[in-house]
User: What shape does this take?
Amino acid sequence: MKKLILPVVFALLFSSCGKKLIYFQEHDGTKNKYNNIEVAQPEDTRLHVIEAGDILGLKINTTSKELSDEFKSYLNNATGIPGLLVQENGTIFLPYTGSIKISGKSIKLAQTIIATELSKYIVNPDIELTLNSFRITILGEVKMPGIKNSPGDRMTILDALSLSGDLAIDARRTNIKVIRQIGEKKVTNIMDISSLDIFRSETYYLKSNDIVYIETLPKKIVRDNIAYLTLFLSIVNVLAITLNRFY
Assistant: This one.
């Protein structure tokens, strides 16, 4: 009997603690509800509001190879991701037009502005402007916090956590904060990665320049374990003494 009690105690202890670390759980009241998981839809990246530090792809369709090559030479920057780097003052620099301020404008509107400026020097310029990089800041209980730059125009919260080496052991999985600029305001959304509901969250798809913050657990898991372990071992000791009296 004494040999069975201790393994049972440890099993109960670590199963309850381990559940706090599991991602994408179904709750008892929603079992089998997510056989077909609904995933939130990403927003049109052409509506992305340009900020300093963004990298934009610019494609100019023209029959002149020399003209195309001239613009391509401006698509190099220090980040290693090809494209036009938006400067701190919100401008990009192009041949013929010089500096054009596009920060605060959507990709769609900036494309029109650039086309209008180029039309002063090039007949009917056919251009396409895209977001070439995705930049987020991730802080708190992850293994590699910091600013993350990734090629492409989309990123999910799971992509962001992967780029950061995943959550640390002391991360609070039920209260992941996504801080987003909407107009003149900063808006905070809360996500719970321990639940399958995360796939339906409006912030499952991040926006470039979002800030992700991972809180620390209110009490460290190790400290909680020590307290529970001390209690259970005391109980085991009492049971063992009691059983010795009978056997």
Q: What stands out?
A: Residues 12-16 have pLDDT under 50 and may be disordered. The chain has three domains: 1-33+218-247, 45-131, 134-216. The two ends are 10 Å apart (CA to CA). The longest helix spans residues 221-246.
